[in-house]
Amino acid sequence: MDLGEFNQLSTDDARARLRPCLDVNRWIDGVVAARPFSTVEAAREAARTSATPLTDDEINQAMSHHPRIGERAEGSSAEAALSSREQAGLGSLDGDVQERLAAGNAAYEERFDRVFLIRAAGRSPEEILAELQRRMANTDTDELAEVGEQLIQIAALRLEGLLA
């Protein structure tokens, strides 16, 4: 689908196409209402600003679609396909990196009671591990804000991919 096709979709069809990017109604409504877009960058900017900041409830809802970093998403949903594609850049993780990610994921989940979420696209496994370690020192409030920002970054990238 290209930008012109997206701009011409009915509201319901546009909503359906956006939901796998970020399952937050307020965000979806904001992006749909901002159409038509003159450029993909304008659409991406709408994706970045339409839900900023995400509420705690919106973050929790959106998080239900994200697997652990370094693990394959289960199922055949659009969200699972997008997540698998985004994590593909991590390549085949060697045993040491896989073990450190698994240990980091477990520690993060123990600390914050949620899956560690990070925009994987464009990041190496070492960068992701460094971010995981850095974020372990966050307060609950600061970490929730970072998770929200990561969700918005992922949504913007997914929308850009949808329009490519």
Automatic annotation (TrEMBL):
PANTHER family listed in its UniProt record: 2-OXO-4-HYDROXY-4-CARBOXY-5-UREIDOIMIDAZOLINE DECARBOXYLASE-RELATED
Pfam families according to UniProt: OHCU_decarbox
Catalytic function, reaction form: 5-hydroxy-2-oxo-4-ureido-2,5-dihydro-1H-imidazole-5-carboxylate + H(+) = (S)-allantoin + CO2
Gene this protein is translated from: uraD
UniProt entry keywords in alphabetical sequence: Decarboxylase, Lyase, Purine metabolism
Protein name: 2-oxo-4-hydroxy-4-carboxy-5-ureidoimidazoline decarboxylase
Molecular function GO terms recorded: 2-oxo-4-hydroxy-4-carboxy-5-ureidoimidazoline decarboxylase activity
EC number: 4.1.1.97
Pathway membership, UniProt: Purine metabolism; urate degradation; (S)-allantoin from urate: step 3/3
One biological process term in Gene Ontology: urate catabolic process
Domain Oxo-4-hydroxy-4-carboxy-5-ureidoimidazoline decarboxylase: 7-160
InterPro entries xrefs: OHCU_decarboxylase, OHCU_decarboxylase-2, OHCU_decarboxylase_sf
